[in-house]
Amino acid sequence: MTKNFILFDFDGVIADSFRAAYGVANMMCPHLTEDEHRRRFEGNIHDWEEPVDRHTKDCRQDIDFFEEYVPRLKKSEIFSGMKEIIAGLAQGYTLVIVSSTVTSPIQDYLNTRDLATYFSWVMGADVHTSKVEKIKMVFEKYEIGPESCVFITDTLGDILEAEKTGIGAIGVTWGFHKPETLKRGNPFRLVDSPDVLPVAISDYFSQ
Q1: Crossing angle of the two packed helices 131-142 and 156-164, in degrees rounded to 10
Q2: DSSP H helices in 10-54
Q3: How far apart are CA 154 and CA 190, in angstroms?
Q4: Could you give phi then psi for residue 126, rounded to 5 degrees?
Q5: What are the DSSP calls for 84-153, one per residue?
Q6: How many domains are contained in the chain?
Q7: Do residues 107 and 116 make contact, with C-beta atoms less than 8 angstroms apart?
């Protein structure tokens, strides 16, 4: 019997990286507030210019986001309990990362924390900036349909992209978006701690 697939967002689900990401974004645009930065993730972050772009003369167009972000990501902690949960889930599911961060630093992060072996595929922004397209690539590569997948994410934008491919999402409340924001995407369920993820995932596939 083919295993079902769990598609994981990375930042805000596995890596506690909001401070790292916001720190660079704020360096680039000093006027940017935390709430404004979070709103960029209500859609695809790579399309954030519309409708939340608000550059001023103080914005630094000479800064490369990932060049500044990657060293900070390396220092970001894994959310407490996620390593054990990932290891357990890998026993019964095929795990894939679908992220807006580029692939290589994610792979390095997983390698240095003994997590890489649990994931069959890591797909970053260099694979495609659209998570819709990356999810379709998962369907094609593994010859599966939407019914075989669930997306684990901390942002409204991801929930909406997953919906476009026909798969449901489980929202985690320890990441970039608050529960009230996540609820706008009608996720299958919201979870408040990693230890309840396995039950939520099991319930999702039992529908």
Answers
A1: 50
A2: 18-28, 34-39, 49-52
A3: 9
A4: -75, -20
A5: HHHHHHTTTSEEEEE-SS-HHHHHHHHHHTT-GGGEEEEE-TTT-S-HHHHHHHHHHHHT--GGGEEEEE
A6: 2
A7: yes
Contact at 8 Å (CB) between 135 and 159? no
Which residues are registered as beta bridge partners of 153? 171
What does the chain come to in residues? 207
pLDDT in tens, 99-112: 989 999 999 999 99
Least Cα distance to 194 among 15, 55, 5, 4 occurs for 15
Residue 139 confidence (pLDDT): 97
Residues 51 and 80 in one domain: no
Helices (H) and strands (E) in the chain, counts: 10, 6
Single residue among 74, 104, 122 that ends a domain in this structure: 74
- Is residue 24 domain-shared with residue 108, that is, in the same domain? no
Same domain membership, residue 195 and residue 103:
yes
| Residue ranges in the chain whose pLDDT is less than 50 | 50-52
What token pair was written down for 187? 């996720």
